[in-house]
Design a protein that fits this description.
The protein is α+β, with helices and mostly antiparallel strands and 264 residues long. The chain has seven helices and eight strands, in the order ααααββββαββαββα.
Length: 264
């Protein structure tokens, strides 16, 4: 019994010490992470880097905690080099997706195809970039849905950044009846886009006949606006054109077909 107690007591003591280390360590990590988060918020850090840096600090501290607990338990890792290497290889295969996401996050931060606050379209989703985490990039859609896209797939996919340029071009197509006065139609369209306060004069608005459709003559209208004014101008112009067409008696045709019956 004395021999059992002699061998068991140190093990129990190490286990209790390891448990206490885990509990205290997690609290300390939580405190340090919150402190780091407050620090980067107040510092001159690029806001795109802030979530990534905080997540990385949290992950590194947890890895250090695990190493400390193993050391307290008295596990001699040098005698299990082969086992640890094999386990590391297996873990690497199991978490290859996560490692790919981590590498993708580093790549996104290095190349900077977008930053926090940009409106992007990628991997079949679109939204405003909220944060770039270690493994995922967080988007918020226009209807306030939160979308998490793995950094690995995001870094290997096509990305459309709508916010990287200060200006954008708004394209319209308006169809009018074949009986309409095309010169009047052009003048009305030019007047509508020219009078809108958010439409830029340089480059100059473009209004031309673009297509002889099956049921209508189609006019192409292209104007340049500031990126943040895109949808305001789009909806304003569409609404105003309908009102002006009605005032000028310009018809907006709908698809139709003439059927001729031949008597035998």
């Amino acid at each position: 019994m004395n021999n059992i107690i002699y061998f068991v007591m140190p093990i129990i003591k190490n286990i209790i010490l390891a448990l206490l280390t885990v509990l205290v360590g997690l609290k300390v990590i939580q405190w340090i992470t919150k402190g780091a988060e407050k620090f980067v918020e107040k510092s001159s850090f690029d806001k795109t880097l802030k979530p990534f840096v905080v997540s990385l600090i949290n992950a590194l501290l947890k890895v250090l905690l695990v190493i400390s607990v193993i050391s307290i338990l008295g596990i001699d890792t040098t005698s299990f080099v082969a086992v640890i290497a094999a386990a590391g290889f297996a873990v690497g295969l199991a978490f290859k997706g996560s490692l790919s996401n981590f590498a993708g996050g580093v790549l996104l931060l290095a190349l900077r195809p977008f930053k926090v606050g940009d409106y992007i379209e990628a991997s079949g989703f679109s939204g405003t970039v909220q944060a770039i985490q270690i493994l995922y990039t967080e988007l918020v859609s226009v209807d306030n849905k939160v979308i998490f896209i793995p950094n690995g797939s995001l870094s290997n996919s096509s990305i459309v950044n709508y916010s990287i340029k200060d200006t954008r071009r708004v394209d319209f197509k308006f169809g009018v009846g074949y009986e309409s006065d095309t010169s009047m139609v052009k003048e009305v369209l030019k007047a509508v886009v020219g009078s809108h306060p958010l439409v830029l004069n340089d480059p100059e608005p473009f209004v031309r006949m673009s297509e002889h459709g099956d049921s209508a003559i189609v006019f192409a209208v292209r104007v340049w606006v500031k990126a943040q004014d895109y949808w305001t101008v789009y909806f304003d112009v569409v609404e105003t054109v309908k009102k002006r067409f009605d005032e000028e008696g310009i018809s907006i045709p709908y698809p139709q077909m003439d059927v001729h019956l031949k008597q035998q």
